[in-house]
Amino acid sequence: LVVSLSFMGFFVPVRTLWTLGASPTAYGVVGFFTVLWFLDFAWYREQTCNFICPYARFQGAMFDRDSLIIAYDLRRGEARGARRRGLGSVGERLRGLLPLATAERWIAHALLPAASAPGAVRRSTGAFDDYARESVTAPPESAELGDCIDCTWCVQVCPVGIDIRNGLQYECIACGACIDACDQVMDRVGYPRGLVRYTTQNALDGRPARVLRPRIVIYGLLLMGLAAGWAWGVTHRASLGVEVLRDRNALYRVASDGHVENAYTLKLINKSATAQSYQIDVAGTDGPQLRGGPLRVELAAESLQTVAVTLAAPAAWAHGRRDVQLVIGNPAMPSRHSRIDTSFFGPVP
Fold first, then answer.
1. Confidence of residue 102 (pLDDT cuts 50, 70, 90)
2. What region, left, alpha or beta, does residue 148 occupy, with left being phi > 0 and alpha being psi -120 to 50 degrees?
3. DSSP single-letter state for residue 142
4. Are 338 and 238 in contact (CB under 8 A)?
5. No. of H helices and E strands in the chain?
6. Which long-range contacts (CB under 8 A, 24 or more apart) does 203-207 make?
7. Which residues pair with 322 in a beta bridge?
């Protein structure tokens, strides 16, 4: 409900929503999104990340082998499996890190049944590679075991249900829950932390990793441009929003004094945090003018008000479609008036 109210606050003043002063349509939209969010969090859950959220699709386009990702150190962790109490880590046993190809064969052994033919295993950032060479079919000996004890905590805590040990997958939302779970297990068995950690694919493969590269510069410039645009928009935001709607019932009407009249509805939005006084007038003196002269309107802070106005023009001027301009602003700040273009219709000669 709070999320839905926050979303609706972009279109309706928040104070109006909380004081039940908004329209039934606004509360209907709030109710719709409340049900939608409830279904998302209570039932659909990780399927949103897998099939709806576009973030995962952006990853494949923006990542490279030097991008910082959450990854499993397969050269240290494989071969995975249970072990007797007191067996040291790969560093303590001087086993060292496995060659990449050997570690990937142990992953294939964990993914595929022991008696199956050579199959497929995830490589690098999630791509599959077919193995035509021999695969590991026998369970690992104690000396071959890596630091992964195959407790599956990293899978159990993952909100989208993936196994990070199979490589980076598009479902990953980079929450880091698998890192925390694995570090706790490493602490309990007395192994060094970092089996699952933030790193790069090149670093995992034993290759040098680069920090400064072209895409970092391009992404940085884009981010700076977006931040500058946001800052400019916030500092130059107009405190008054105006929308002009013509009367849909008739293009024009002829008054008893011979003037041609057009009716309009103005929606004025005071975006400032203080009450404001605005004056509505027409630019120029040779065309239509407001009936009754310039109109003064008082708007409360962060409020919307609808005002009906009528423009009247001499019959000699009002022929066909003519452009007019309404001027709305605070008389105390002449430099910050809003000028709104609209149309005035009269009889076609």
1. confident
2. beta
3. G
4. yes
5. 11, 13
6. 204/71, 204/73, 204/74, 204/75, 205/65, 205/100, 205/124, 206/75, 206/97, 206/100, 207/65
7. 344
The two three-digit tokens of residue 200, written as one number: 């790069």
What's the DSSP call for residue 191?
Answer: P
Q: In terms of C-beta density within 10 A (0-12 exposed, 13-18 middle, 19 or more buried), how is residue 319 classed?
A: middle
Q: How confident is the model at residue 184 (pLDDT cuts 50, 70, 90)?
A: very high
Tokens found for residue 315: 């019959």
List phi, psi (to 5°) of 309: -130, 155
Rounded to whole angstroms, how far apart are CA atoms 36 and 38? 5
3-state secondary structure 272-321: CCCCEEEEEEECCCCCCEECCCCEEEEECCCEEEEEEEEEEECCCCCCCE
Which tokens is 213 given? 């590269």
User: What is the DSSP pairing of strand 127-130 with strand 260-270?
Assistant: unpaired
Residue 271, token pair as written in the block: 């975006």
Burial (CB count within 10 angstroms: exposed 0-12, middle 13-18, buried 19+), residue 54? exposed
Chain Cα centroid distance, residue 103:
37
Q: Where are the alpha helices (DSSP H) in the chain?
A: 2-8, 14-18, 24-39, 46-47, 55-62, 74-77, 100-111, 153-156, 177-189, 201-204, 214-235
What's the CA gap between 104 and 63, in Å, rounded? 22
User: pTM of the predicted model, to two decimals?
Assistant: 0.60
What distance in Å separates the CA atoms of residue 177 and residue 46, rounded to the nearest whole number? 14
Rounded CA-CA distance 74/107 in Å is 8
Tell me the average pLDDT across 161-168.
87
Cβ proximity of 170 and 126 under 8 Å: yes
Q: Which residues of 322-349 are buried (b: 16+ CB within 10 A; e: fewer)?
A: eebebebbbeeeeeebbebeeebbbeee
Distance CA 213, CA 200 (A): 14
